[in-house]
């Protein structure tokens, strides 16, 4: 069976890619390491309807499903978008939090939350479900992380907040949509790191030849490509399973996160090895995508967590 996007879904993805190429170039990502991200790309995505894909039409959204959004989120990963698209469009929007002018993220009390230094609203897990907080209802303590563009902070409630849902199934579904989005972002990051490395291997010469002509480099690049090709269909199937409420959707989501995380790890290592010393410098764009992949590797559950979840789902 071949998994891919149809014409409508591909059109939405292509729109996102074009917007992000123009409004979220590497220079914009780099700038977000030291200041709040430029809101231009975020506003453009909102105007294009990307933040409201999962919002019902009756509430002003597009009324579509995860299969329409997963390609957009992958493009956000490819661009290393320094805004919480997964948390806002995949996690918060289906719960009825549809104000797309606000940035919303999901975490737990005392947790380190991305975009927390400039977000206006936060969705946090609590003992009784999920609660929505305004920024002034939280203690927000900025923290340093491997990827400064994520603008992370430790957040702790100072007020009760508003109960969004106490339905355990809704909480699990919100978590799994977050996992799915993170897998899609990792897949996009892998594609971008491989693109950068292939271009570099074609341009960098040693012994009078492009280094991409050497067998060892070819093997690194081929292995990275194989891992990406394994992960891609898994991410698409996870989106399909969630959209259709299939019984194996939880397992599919965890499989997609494990495979996408592995693809990013393999591709990142290959990219560093093929770039050599220049790949370790902050002046080179590679580190923007590599560090984001490191940050996302443990977000919404790391490799061991999801491997255990898959194993438990099949009785191992």
Can you describe what's shown?
The chain is α+β, with helices and mostly antiparallel strands and 316 residues long. The protein has a domain at 169-313: Butyryl-CoA Dehydrogenase, subunit A, domain 3 (Up-down Bundle), CATH 1.20.140.10. Helices cover 53% and strands 12% of the residues. It has a 4-stranded mixed beta sheet, covered by helices on one side. Strands 2-6-5 form a 3-stranded antiparallel beta sheet, with no helix packed on it. The protein has a two-stranded antiparallel ribbon with strand order 8-9. The relative contact order is 0.11.
Helices and strands, in order, run as: HHHHHEEEEEEEHEEHHHH
What's the count of strands? 9
SS-based class: alpha+beta
Query: Order of strands across the widest beta sheet?
Result: 1-3-4-7
* Separation, N- and C-terminal Cα atoms: 26 Å
What is the residue-averaged pLDDT?
Answer: 92
**Range of helix content:** 40-55%
CATH level 1 class label of the domain at 169-313: Mainly Alpha
Q: Write the CATH fold name of the domain at 169-313.
A: Butyryl-CoA Dehydrogenase, subunit A, domain 3
Query: Approximately how much beta-strand content do the residues carry?
Result: 5-15%
Radius of gyration: 19 Å
CATH second-level architecture of the domain at 169-313? Up-down Bundle
Give the gist of this structure.
The protein is α+β, with helices and mostly antiparallel strands and 316 residues long.
Give keywords.
316 residues, Butyryl-CoA Dehydrogenase, subunit A, domain 3, 3-stranded antiparallel β-sheet, globular
